[in-house]
Amino acid sequence: MDCSKQVVYQIYPKSFQDTTGNGRGDLNGITSHLDYLQDLGITMIWFNPIFPSPQKDNGYDVSNYTAINPDYGTMDDFETLVREAGKRGIGIMLDMVFNHTSTEHEWFQKALAGNRKYKDYYIWKKGKDGHLPTNWPSKFGGPAWQYVEKFDEYCLHLFDPTQADLNLANPDVRNELVNVLKFWIEKGVKGFRFDVVNLIDKMAFEDAPEGSEGKEFYTDGPKVNDYLHQLHVEALGNADVLTVGEMSATSVEKCSGYSKPENEELSMCFNFHHLKVDYKDKQKWTLMPFDFQELKDLFFEWDVKMEEEGGWNALFWNCHDQPRALSRFGDPVHYPKESAKMLVSVIFTRRGTPYFLYGDEIGMTNLNSRSVADYDDVESHNAADMLKHEQHKSDDEILAILQAKSRDNGRTPMQWTNGTNGGFTSGQPWLRLNDNLETVNAESVLQEEDSIYDYYKKLIALKKTNPILQHGTTRTLLQTDKNLYAYVRELDSEEILCVHNFFGHPAPLSLDLHEYERILSNYSDFDPDALALRPYESLILKKKN
Fold this sequence. Notes:
Layout: E1 8-11, H1 27-31, H2 34-40, E2 44-47, H3 75-87, E3 91-96, E4 100-102, H4 106-112, H5 116-119, E5 124-125, E6 145-148, E7 153-156, E8 163-165, H6 171-186, E9 191-194, H7 223-236, E10 242-246, H8 252-259, E11 268-270, H9 292-309, E12 314-315, H10 325-329, H11 336-349, E13 353-357, H12 378-389, H13 395-405, H14 442-445, H15 452-465, H16 467-471, E14 473-477, E15 484-491, E16 494-501, E17 507-508, E18 516-521, E19 532-533, E20 538-543
Parallel strand pairs: 1-2, 1-13, 2-3, 3-9, 9-10, 10-11, 12-13
Antiparallel strand pairs: 4-8, 5-7, 6-7, 14-15, 15-16, 16-20, 17-19, 18-20
Helix pairs in contact: 6-7, 8-9, 11-15, 12-13
């Protein structure tokens, strides 16, 4: 599948549309909005996990890889969705969690029952001198090992204790996962997103040195490439599918290797370095303004090096694990349209495949809940406990941090109308909706002139048809400018100039724009004599022949 022409729309199924009144989104709700998505112009929908799950981590704790969670509907509902989406030129991408399963999965239950075959599907270690096997912390807080008295052993869980890490060193496990992919390909699935897939090779079980969390022992191991290649050759190679790997704490060199077509591993990679530029001392649960220079340096590095090495980027601001970019890098109060359009222009004009989260196209923002109790996310509650008991933060400080950093910010129900519960459900929504739904909702936005939605449509059409934006090389400009992010995309002596003001004040412009004509911009007029870009102004210009 040609990555350069794809535009992926992420849906958190629990939050898109409820048709049953139980307060949770479902597959039939997604099917009911396919015309809306076709009009937008996207080519693929990425779903977060829709498999059976106890929902300890909102579906990333899978208890059956080849069934549909009854909360979302039936297999017939899924097959209808695939078929109806296909009629509209939209493929379905599933989220595959191959690093771990729920402890409720049949494999783990058989392991607990003493079945030696299935016990080897997971990672078990004896304690060391009365201590845990290693001192690794879980990514959700606490130790990464759970003691099982029956075996007098510890089971590894890099995430929640109910998410036991799979042992992919066992070929039987890899064969099981190949069969899972084949099952869904036969159902018509056109894409797979692999969750934290660069953690699937645990290289060594040693204590992390002081100041480290042990990531060096289980991140980007040498066998990750082998395991991905096996999945590709045995399940994906003969299917016209798109694959993307979520990469935790990775490098540009590793991602170029994972995504080079000749390596037959993945189509592209997600990385998250650019979404840590507002982490004080690189710690998530902190507050600080984003570091614009660091952001630009990361973009330049990943765009240029991935191009040089033949890799491919998955480009995004928002996903289910991140706060909304409009609240984070833009200004939803004073410049909601301008900053939302500027941010999406950055994603669509760089080299790679753009992804965006449901609601981005109408300007959805962070939740800004009024109490810690409003949050559903297990990571957020664990963080709140840590901030309170270890860092002795006040309740107000904790709430402010969650308002800015909680994963629930990217999971709130879709705001369809300004009616009760935003038109999402007739029941009690599983997560509180944003207070701004009276003005920020699809029904209202679709009636606006020069709306964020219309701008997305134009960008999507441009990305799908413009060879320069699809395949052009990247030349960086204004690398140390304190306000502007600028670059040129070049192909066959043609070029597109992109200039973005990341701030809510005019930004002096030193570039000569007279040789360019406007393709698209987020203000209604374009003045080549301008000496500054307006607040959050974004220009996409083509050099005149």
